[in-house]
Fold this protein.
Amino acid sequence: MTYLLEALRSRVGEFVSLRRDIHRHPELAFEEHRTAALVAEKLEGWGYAVERGLGGTGVVGTLVRGRGTRRLGLRADMDALPIAEASGAAWSSERPGLMHACGHDGHTAMLLGAARHLAEEGRFDGTLNLIFQPAEEGGGGALRMMADGLFERHPCDAVFAMHNMPGIPQGDLVLREGAAMASSDYATITLTGIGGHGAMPQHAADPVVAAASLVMALQTVVSRNVDPLQAAVVTVGAIHAGRANNVIPHTATLELSVRALDRGVRALLEQRIRALAQAQAESFGVQAAVEWRQGYAVLVNTPAETAFAREVALELLGPERVTLQGPPLTGSEDFAFMLERVPGSYLFIGNGDAPGSCMVHHPGYDFNDDNIAVGSAYWVRLAEKFLAAEGSPVRQ
Ligand SMILES: [Zn+2]
Ligand SMILES: [Zn+2]
């Protein structure tokens, strides 16, 4: 494995420059035109068959070797965030108000680093699909690519993805079988009462009091309805009602973020939140309307593919630098939708744990370029092992 890491380190400069170039030119969800063009051009230059425009700005690069029937998908995301950068890096964003604060610039660079190595030196037998998706940050780019026929046009027997994560030593890999990232749903609850004079509440039906009570009642969903051994989050992140101290408003609106790590718990949360909204509203003589929007699904890593990914990680870095079963996160990720269709596994690569290092989505965040060689090596090794030719041992 040292051979592979050294080989990728020896040409990492090209991909560090590329990562910083992408970092300087961040693009929001479904607007990744420059990034997608750059990815497509590189892949074509290395001999990949390239399909552009899947899911808007998605790109798939395909390389077929030998007569193997196995088909592998490796996925990276390309979008940035509407955050004004304050990292102080020399390669800071040149687009005001936009930045790569989630390291997707690094994901793209790591997969391109692997793409070049696999095209030039890769020993594999089968079909390699490199999937560069738009709009991971809330836009559901994975779903859009799938709606455009991603897995019909480029069938995969398994798909894998990785995300950089601060707080983990640089280059260490953290895997997890089962639910690894939460579902993320949104609810808007509108309580409609009867407005009136603040001095004469007996003539009104006050939606503010009902909203206040509902916020407290919602806290009991996690504490009283969900199994204590399961994880769930119900956050009321916004509450809007009224404009004057002496006017009882007609309506009050609550905005909720609802997360779960289990599909059953996810359904229970929706059912209980809807029931509480109705019952609370009724008890205060107001009406409740609940608008429920499903966001990303629970991300579930399948057992066989996670075991396979663990083997790859252990071969590459050894047991000291690999966590076989890390904790789940209550954040969410749209790779979950790909895993609902195709088995696979998603892991974290440590961005470093220096004191004061900030979380992703912070204006000071920056992907750690030391991860490019490690991340690319993981992809190369995984591809060569998954698509290994019969009787041809993978070069160590
Ligand atoms: Zn993010
Ligand atoms: Zn991200």
Q: What stands out?
A: The pocket of zinc ion (ligand 2) is lined by residues 102, 104, 136, 163 (CB under 6 Å). The first strand starts at residue 49 and ends at 54.
